[in-house]
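Handout, section B. The chain below has 420 residues.
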Amino acid sequence: MRTWYRNLDYFTLLLWVLLVGVGLVAIYSTTHGPAAENLAESVQHNFTRQLVWAGICIVGIGIALALPVRFFRHAAYPIYGLTIVLLIAALLFGREVNGAQSWLVIGPLRLQVSELAKVGTVLALAQLLSSQRVGTMGNVRFALRAVGLIVLPAVLIIMQNDMGTALVFFGLVPIMLFWSGIPISVVLLMLSPAIAGYLALVYMPAAIAFAILFTLGMWWYTHERYMVALGALFTGGVAAVVTFVLTNILQPYQVDRLLSFTNPEAEQYRQGVGFHLVQSKAAIGSGGLWGKGFMQGTQTQGSYVPEQSTDFVFSVIGEEFGFVGATVVLLLFALLLVRIVRLGADVKHPFGGIVAAGAVGIYLIHIFINIGMATGILPVIGIPLPFISYGGSALLANTAMLAIVLTIHMRRDDLSIYGY
């Protein structure tokens, strides 16, 4: 067996360093350039705090690499249970930030526990899905058990008024089930509510048409009545629920945040969240090919774009470093995702592969939603860009998942003795 450090994938660590470095550069630009004059004093220290969190993450990577593989398998459910307890504690005793009661203050630390819950959920799902024999994978009841592990923290996060983070959990459903070997019909069934919900936001007739076509397709593909019934429930039912929530539960400003992306320049949105989208797109578009230069972006340094170091950090990169800079960032993300998939495929035990799939799923959902939000093709729902956006809890959680994947891959030969 090779020495452990020779099994470590240094290229993945390099990609982590580069992405965190890009984030630090963008955060520094928004907090130390002309834009700093318009920021609250606490926000002006975002760069320093992010730098400290990056140092904490480096220590965390070292600790994770020193742990045996069996630790992550045996501790999967306890870690998941701990994150559920933390979510409940945040709901009862947490501090509200930007309308979401997702933060626990522990001494000098302020943790967004919904971010940490992603790690526990991925580990618990990997343990559940890897412990089942192939013959049970077609069982919808088993798939619903896996979905239940995702829905529980997602519901608690929704109760904290953090719909954006909850959507990340729901997005894990098809990714994790597909990777674990569950039949495609069941995976599509679990994916259908997300599609129906999105279409219901954009254009209700399209959601109704999708519900009808999906239900008919389920009958044609499976010829099983219970799958047809579930298909109708998961599509038509979700579309009905979305309509009810929009009209009877959400506050007007929350509805505006969800719907403004469809036409941000409309009169009812232009002075609110629509203004944010217009300014973000203007910033990215004005960067041109090479960008306006570090700390030289007019939209960025004029503080026209809100939450520039968090939700809209991609607009800073697009304006100051242009199309080339934005493409480099996307290329780094693509390399990281492909690399993690390859690391997971190298692990013969399904636990390692499913953990890798969970990490890729979370990163991919964040990247897609955050960049889609900054470019105006998706609603503004407050999703950070992994490793780049300011946020210690998010950086710690994302780094923890990456470190666990690296550890499992590095010690992959140890998994074979524990069985399935």
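Note. The first strand starts at residue 95 and ends at 97. Compare this with the example in section A.
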